[in-house]
Amino acid sequence: MQTMEEFPEDALIRAQLEKLLLAGLRTEAEPRAYDLEMQQSVLTRLQNVPAEEIAKRVGIAGFTLHPYAAEGIEQACETCMYFLSHRQFCALPELMLPVRPDWSCRLWRI
């Protein structure tokens, strides 16, 4: 099993994302993608953005630097089914980005 230390590029990308979000990058945190139609809409948009356009992808995914709370449920990356805890990484095929456990996006799933 690989550890976070084996992915030094992740730390650089994660720091870049955090800097963008702290600087006020506008993201589409709402509406949340709870239904299939909204999920497909967001995923299709992400598929049409090149991987190197990280700011645009993070914006479409609706990332926040804190968990999103809805209906008494805290939606943080660390509780999402796509989160790889050993790597602090979002493995959703349309994203594939290093993240922090307490971040969130509108594609969160349990």
Task: Write up what this structure looks like.
This protein is of the alpha+beta class. The chain has one domain. It is built from 3 helices and 5 strands. A 3-stranded antiparallel sheet has the order 3-4-5. A two-stranded antiparallel sheet has the order 1-2. Strand 3 and strand 4 form a beta hairpin. The model has no long low-confidence stretch (mean pLDDT 93).
What's this, in brief?
The protein is of the alpha+beta class and 110 residues long. 32% of the residues lie in helices and 11% in strands.
Number of domains: 1
State the order of secondary-structure elements, H for helix, E for strand: HHHEEEEE
Low-pLDDT regions: none
**Number of helical runs?**
3
Strand ordering within the main sheet: 3-4-5
Largest sheet: 3 strands, antiparallel
User: Which range does the strand content fall in?
Assistant: 5-15%
Helical content band: 25-40%
